[in-house]
Amino acid sequence: NYYPGPGNYGVKGNPYTKLEEKTCSRSHSEAHPCRTTHRTPPMAHQGSGLAPGTYSFKSGIEAYLAKSMGTRGFYDTFSGDRSKPQPYGHFSVQKRKPRELMNFTSFVEELNSRHNKKRGVFSKISRNLETPTERIYWATLSQCPRKLVSVPPPSMTLL
């Protein structure tokens, strides 16, 4: 398959470099350009550059301490005033934003609001109505029968 699938970005973001390396490694014709032919010959061995006395070995403990120590030092959590809260770490105190005073409504304003307007007020509707005032009772004819005047005669319903 000459076309690589999605997500195969290859070396330096070019998906075709891997395919070109595969074609160059096989036996191929002279017409196919190959990247391996354009490589420069390797440089001659020049040595490691370490002369006697220019390096020093560290013991295992020194290497461990150098690796384990952070940039802030060994006793980072205890450096500074202990009476102040810790600025970072597991036991640090979260920084809270200063809160502004909220606008609370007073009891009288809440009592006179439009939501509480009808609360505690007696209803002006009579108690025993012929038709119920709430919509839930209008669901069936047994709950709220129609008046005979409002029902049209059967001859008009056929039209």
Automatic annotation (TrEMBL):
InterPro entries: CIMAP2. Residues 27-50 are annotated as: Disordered. This is Lymphocyte expansion molecule.
